[in-house]
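S., here's the first fold you wanted:
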Amino acid sequence: MNVKIETSWKEQLSKEFNKKYFKELSLFVANTYQKNCCYPPYSEIFKAFYATPFNEVRVVIIGQDPYHGAGQANGLCFSVADGIVHPPSLRNIFKEIHADLDVEVPASGNLERWASQGVLLLNATLTVEAHKAGSHQKKGWEQFTDTVIQQISEEREGVVFLLWGGFAKKKGSKVDITKHLVLTSGHPSPLSANRGYWFGNEHFRKTNEYFVEKGKAPIKW
């Protein structure tokens, strides 16, 4: 795996790239992409880091795996490529934004527009084999993304962490709440959302109120 990554992230993570586990992970990913159909496209594995430089991170949203269906994953959690039907969780995210901020549901589920405003859309595992959810878990990605979260928590201030569902809450459990705002709720997946654990969390409103209180521009969700 030829790691090409934005300069500010490279400075933060250079030591990680030289660790034994990451070298083994790199070999696994390179070999698996050669042998099998995997997502996101190889060139977009680190897209979250290019789209949102370390020094510009304002919000962190944590997902689990990339989408494993054809043409869906584009390197940003919950996001899909232009022209792809919105998956159920993304539909519920847009429904909550509409209810919370009266923002119309967009035609495109591509969340690059969020990433360019400082929303780091981070999956815990950055790759997956087609139609095999969780197939690249426990190969080293989780250790890498734990380091990403730790670096943001330690080196930045005033970042909003949106932790949706038990997995994300555990992943972000060590974020320094004296320096950052941590908002938690159920996951936007239909199973959780339809049981009352997602809708009405007002996370998008609360995020913007936090930034406005600090004299910063709100996110255009």
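And the second, which I think is the more interesting of the pair:
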Amino acid sequence: MSKPTGDAVLRELQRVLEARKQADADSSYVAKLYANGLDGILKKVGEEATETVMAAKDGDRERIVYETADLWFHTLVMLAAMDLGPDDILAELERRFGLSGLDEKASRPS
């Protein structure tokens, strides 16, 4: 089986993340994250966000890519835990495409 590429990576990863929801916590890292509950998952997202910011602050391009991949991964775990996935986020980005960021922000409820 060949490795997925492009947006197929997100869809395949979502499939795996969904399957891990039913797995024993000792069987995989993702299953262990789910076993720790949403608070544990959110803590990991926060940690990875901080590490991504620090890598960018240091200007280390290789580490920026590595840490951003970690951040995206843990964010996908969070989304899956909330019964959401990449398609939900892509739909929102598509909705915003061509819309001024200032207009989009102003249209948000307070």
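Why I say that: Residues 37-58 form the longest helix (22 residues). The radius of gyration is 16 Å.

Talk tomorrow,
H.
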